[in-house]
Amino acid sequence: MSKVRRYEVTAAGDFASVLAVLTDHVGLQLVSLEEVERSWVDTAAGTLAQTDTTLEFRTPKGEGTASLTWAADGRVLVHDSCVANSVPVQVGDLPESAAFARLARLIDGESLVLGPTVNSQIAVLACLDDEDKTTARFVFDRSETLEGIALPMLLEIIPLRGYDSEAEAIEKLVRRSVALSESATPMKALVKNAIGTRANSSGLSTEMSAASAWHVVLQQLTKSITDSFSGVLSGNDPEDLHAFRVAVRRIRTLLQDGGDIIDPESRDRFRHEYRWLGDITTPTRDADVHLLEFPELVASLPQAQRDDLAPFNEVLIRHRNECQSSMVTELRSIRRAEFGSAWLEFLSDEDAWTGCGELSDEPVLRVVIRRVEKAHRELVKNGGKITKKSPAISLHELRKEGKRLRYLLECFGPLFDQEALATILRPLRDLQDVLGEFQDTEVQGEALFELAGELATTDDRPALVAIGGVVEQLGVRGSTARNEFSKVFGRFDDRKVQRAMNRLEVTKSSGKKKR
Amino acid sequence: MKVLATYNIKGGVGKTATAVNLAHVAAAEGNRVLVWDLDPQGAATFYFRVKPKVKGGGKAIVRGSIELGDAIKATDFDNLDLVPADFSYRHLDLWLDDAKKPLARIRRALLQVSHEYDYIFLDCPPSISLTSESVFRAADALLVPTIPTTLSLRTYEQLDRFVEENPDMVRELKILGFFSMVDRHKRLHRRFMTELRTAHPEMLEGTIPNSTDIERMGVHREPIGSYGKGSRAARSYESLWSEIQTRL
Ligand SMILES: Nc1ncnc2c1ncn2[C@@H]1O[C@H](COP(=O)(O)OP(=O)(O)OP(=O)(O)O)[C@@H](O)[C@H]1O
Ligand SMILES: [Mg+2]
Predict the structure, then answer these.
(1) What chain A residue is nearest to B53 in terms of C-alpha separation?
(2) Cβ of A130 under 8 Å from any chain B Cβ?
């Protein structure tokens, strides 16, 4: 599909005068004209930016409801009004639709953070052919920052699929009749440059000391934990526990990689406690996964066997509820309460965050990049040793190393060159998916087998046979994942990724040239 | 990807209106949707204002010498694309006849774009022929608009029988019949609906009324959801769509 063309309109002038010139040459129809305040939203790690998509929250000046638009380079993937009229923070705040469900999967339990905000006038016009069919869209975009700094007026020409030659002709006309200069910078990036890295919503900047940056990220992660805590206790939505556990896992990575940055005594203590916190939530998460995946596993069995499994679903539900209630007991324990308040106290103690280690006051970027490089080296080295004969445990260990690298990159994502970051993260996530599938299918297979023991006492043979079928399938999925390992690892252990590692440090020009 | 074909042996029953309007509803919900206009008369293509022409000819797609993706045109609606009709589709039966494995051809063409779409609608010409058999193979479900008259009852049952008698050909094809162009004020319509529902309880609950709003699609050249949003007719397609999703 052909690309969006993007120009800065250099002629002094407003929409009207530019339009007057264009209407002489092209059949145009106004689709919409809006005056809005708009903000870009993304996860703290920049998940959306890495997939080359943007999520925009628009509130109209005057009447009207707010809306949310998810787009890929100017093409709308989904657009819907936002009932809540406020910026979505959790996945649950997104409108309910198939496309937003896709977005939710992409965000994967992370919170959304508010990016730059501007006031904009946006006009969308359709170029029509002789059947009144749209062949391309013009988007005029005039924005200024909240402080009133005017940004260049942008004109985007978005060709519709299958109408490339028409779009080319339109483009020629426009270039002849309006003063334009080619621009590769989308509005979001223009805004970011104008507002500066200061406004980086993550609260991170490359000039910070390592200890302050660790502090900022740990505070954000702690907020995710507190935000999801009541949901974890209620157990109504598995997403809450998932988000909770991801935050715990990330805190553990930051503590693990916080040597010479964080006060050593606190670091040891909290590493121990967070490990415990992770462990006590694992059985419930596993049980959630059985329940979530069971229908799909069952669906591939022949109809007769599917019916045989009905009693087993009840076993799974009962098991899950048991796990949930023992987890809740632990989460309400004195140990957890004491650890929680000690942690919050630690975070709020300003003195604990300067000069407690050799590297505490070093610039964060240098420190992080060294740790990222180390994690990367180890992953490449140990991954390279894996052969078809390696025991399963060595793949599980590799997955942990992959997590460490991934979480370091994601937690400090805003500090890095975004293109380099995406180049590393994409194959890394694919690798982690394969390793995850391999381990999960194994864990799940074993667990189902064990739970099936409960049925054995009731002598429900058909159900046992059917579970055997399910476990067998898990085995097939696991070995498929195992066979894929060398392919996905090859894509990660690649010159492109290696070069990107060397480009992680943001250079002056990298804000401008996107491709 | 789910493939849905609007199909009826009878002509003029609302197949094209169904394909166009349901596709529009599905896309507006955020699904990625493709409509493939297989009828050489090109009514669906006309409703989307696209020129009825495929670069290289429709034959090339069926033959596999050009990719289906290269023939796709975006409609004016987000997430909704079209493979336009081509007048040469009137020879479709002939090409399928001398292509190798004719029945697998349409499915194979669709597989090239399956990762790009959640739903693909095939708008078929009225008949039972080689093309329709190839469509039956490709589709997960047939959407069968049925006007409540005796004749429709017979054609519906004819289709049912055809599918039943050719189990190897149609794999797991679902037949989703529903009433189209229903006039609630006609006693006969009400009577036939009751009769047909008794004989075929699997028919969908949702019905599409006989409505001048729907007829006006030809004037507006748009799906009804665009020019008649919120009208009774537009809502009837919305509820039909949510019911269809539960049946897939
Ligand atoms: N529910 C309806 N109420 C009133 N008119 C309708 C309705 N549905 C379709 N029509 C009109 O009836 C005519 C035939 O409809 P349509 O083209 O959808 O049927 P079809 O089954 O696709 O026909 P063909 O067999 O020729 O392809 C069209 O003029 C259309 O505008
Ligand atoms: Mg038709």
Answers:
(1) A162
(2) no
The shortest CB-CB distance from B73 to any of A77, A98, A161 is to A161
Number of compact structural domains in chain B: 1
Ligand 1 atom with least separation from CA of B126: 25
Which of A131, A132, A163, A164 has the most B C-beta neighbours within 10 Å, making it the best mutation to test the interface with B? A131
A35 and A152, same domain (yes or no): yes
- Quote the domain boundaries for residue B206: 2-247
Q: Rounded to whole angstroms, how far apart are CA atoms B33 and B2?
A: 10
- Consecutive sets of 10 residues in chain A, 515 residues long: mean pLDDT of each? 73 65 80 89 83 88 85 82 75 78 83 82 91 92 79 86 89 75 70 52 79 92 88 88 92 92 92 96 93 82 80 87 94 91 90 84 92 95 93 94 93 85 88 93 87 72 82 90 93 93 70 36
Phi first, then psi, for residue B83 (nearest 5°) are: -100, 110
Ligand located closest to B8 CA = 1
Which residues in chain B are closer than 8 Å to A132, comparing Cβ atoms? 49, 221
**C-alpha–C-alpha distance, residues B226 and B217, integer Å:** 10
- Inter-chain touch A99–B30, beta carbons under 8 Å: yes
Final residue belonging to a domain, choices A145, A161, A195: A195
Q: Per the domain annotation, does A204 fall within a domain?
A: no
Same domain, A176 and A234: no
Task: Kindly state the helix (H) or strand (E) to which residue A122 belongs, with its residue range.
Answer: strand A112-128
Query: Residue A362 sits in which domain range?
Result: 210-502
pTM of the model: 0.65
What ipTM is given for this predicted complex?
A: 0.89
**What does each C-alpha distance from A495 to A274, A499, A501, B9 come to in angstroms?**
36, 6, 10, 59
